[in-house]
Amino acid sequence: MAGALIGGIPALAQTAEELEAQWATYEEVRPKAIHELQPFREEVAAPLKDGRVVRLISLNPAVNSWFLLRLETAEGKVQDSYHLENPNPTGQTLRLYTEGRTALVVENADGTLRCAPWLGTGASLSVARKTGLPFAPLCGDRIYLRNQVSGSRSNLEATTEFLRENVWGGESIVNFVKGTFFRDSEMTTSEALEANGQGRLDLGPGAATMDYALEDRPVVRTYNALGFEGADNKNMTMGLWYPIAGAEGVYTSTIQPRHLAQEVLKGEGKTNWLDGVESRANAQFVAFDLSRFDINYAVGTAHPGLEWSPRPPWDVRPRGMPGPDGVSNAKPLVRLGMIPPQMADRAVAVFTGGFKRQHSAFKWGEYIRLNYGSHYGFIEHGVILSKLQPRLSTIYVLTDGTYGMKTWTEEDNEMLPRIRFARQNGVPLVEDGIPGPLVPHWGPGNWSGSAEAKLRTLRAGACMKEANGKQWLIYGWFSTATPSAMARAFQGYGCDYAMLLDMNAMEHTHLALFTRNEGSLHVEHLMPGMAAIEKRARSGDVIPRYLGFVDNRDFFYLTLKEGLDP
Questions:
Q1: Exposure string (b/e) for 399-421, b if CB count within 10 Å is 16 or more?
Q2: Please, what sign has the CA dihedral across residues 323, 324, 330, 335?
Q3: Residue range 425-430: average pLDDT?
Q4: Alpha carbons 95 and 118: distance in angstroms, whole number
Q5: What tens digit of pLDDT does each residue of 62-77 get?
Q6: Do 341 and 166 contact (CB within 8 A), yes or no?
Q7: Which 3-state string (H, E, C) describes 294-360?
Q8: What is the rounded distance in angstroms from the CA atom of residue 285 to the CA atom of residue 530?
Q9: What is this structure's pTM?
């Protein structure tokens, strides 16, 4: 019952009234603690013999991944906070035992385990915090303490050793880069070679629409560094899909927008005219069969932030608010920018997420006065770090594994209790198969540009489509493009919905694949310049970004579905 006392401390069982009160707090325009931004949270508190109180907050019980453990004085002052992660949210529960000796109770198929990691001078919480590991095991290795760590050499080596022993199974990691030298500040293009008719129209998510018969489609020498099959000497037929060796369900393709069909370039939806540079620029694509892979998302250690973007004018900001949602950072939650260990052995790909907070709001157009500038929202493991805003492009994943990409609405907030991951980034490039209404409008669309304020620059985006009885997620990398070129290219590949991701640099448009062969984990990059950001252990092994060390930028990662073999 609500308000019941356990040893004089209220145990906050969630009644309809309490959930309604939490939702009201969520919507209040005032400064908040990050846990107050979680309208579905459940809290249980219990006294300890030394007079302190321990409180366990399940931040989203339907997702069952992230918990906040707090040690408080009897008067409610927080002494310390610990961010816990349940590595098996569908098969394991974590709760606070409040009868008799207070303890955490972890239950899974192997049985029930009780632990009190706050006890003693050598309390395991304190020990775990000092390990230097981003994910430090607790309670018989059944849960993790998330630690804020740096990218220092000592932390890097400690993390690598932990992953090698506990996740990768002793695998060596090698850099698997193919292709020619590439300067990542330059556009890539290729002159069309003699058509050779190589390739098939029915592979992967379906060929791009072009005004050529298969045997007449242009062939280009590509800088694509992935280990794809079915082409000679990296010569790819434009608009066709090629399978990646050792990565079932993953394909790659290339196009120059000028070779798209006229019905696409001059078809439905309004875009700007494509100039002679972007129309000839190579664009690379990677497609993932979502019957084999799950989509996941994580914020970086720093980006995107939770504070105000400088873009909206001061007069739209409520007085005293540290950020548009009432918070300026996620503390005491720990942001890691890294794939959790329990998912690392099933990871098949990573690619960078969206804009930093600085650019994640509107400076021009009607959006500047909608919801304080319409800052882009994001959710990790069911925890709302920034509210999802209506009218913004959103990719999301629910607790049952379903996913979508759409323009968010107020009615979609009914899904909030069941959202495991979500990321917003601007307005649609493609919606219902045609270019979005703001594609040709630079300011109102918040498309941003290069450091020199040029709209045509290196960009990345993603789309979803249904083809050959399957759903596909397609990542697009454009060596130089405006939103108009991106929209037409995604439209040409038959995308139902497409959205912008990040831009301007290789590290911001990074995509890597992880393939496993004969005891080694191979790291492949879409473009050769993307390998520059990886780190190396003293042994010389490559330590992949997002998989082996924490990173300050947010990212998506795809993992093989349970029950499938790599």
A1: beeebebbbbeeebeebbbbbbb
A2: negative
A3: 98
A4: 15
A5: 999 999 999 999 999 9
A6: yes
A7: EEEEECCCCCCCCCCCCCCCHHHCCCCCCCCCCCCCCCCCCCCCCCCHHHHCCEEEEEECCCCHHHC
A8: 15
A9: 0.91
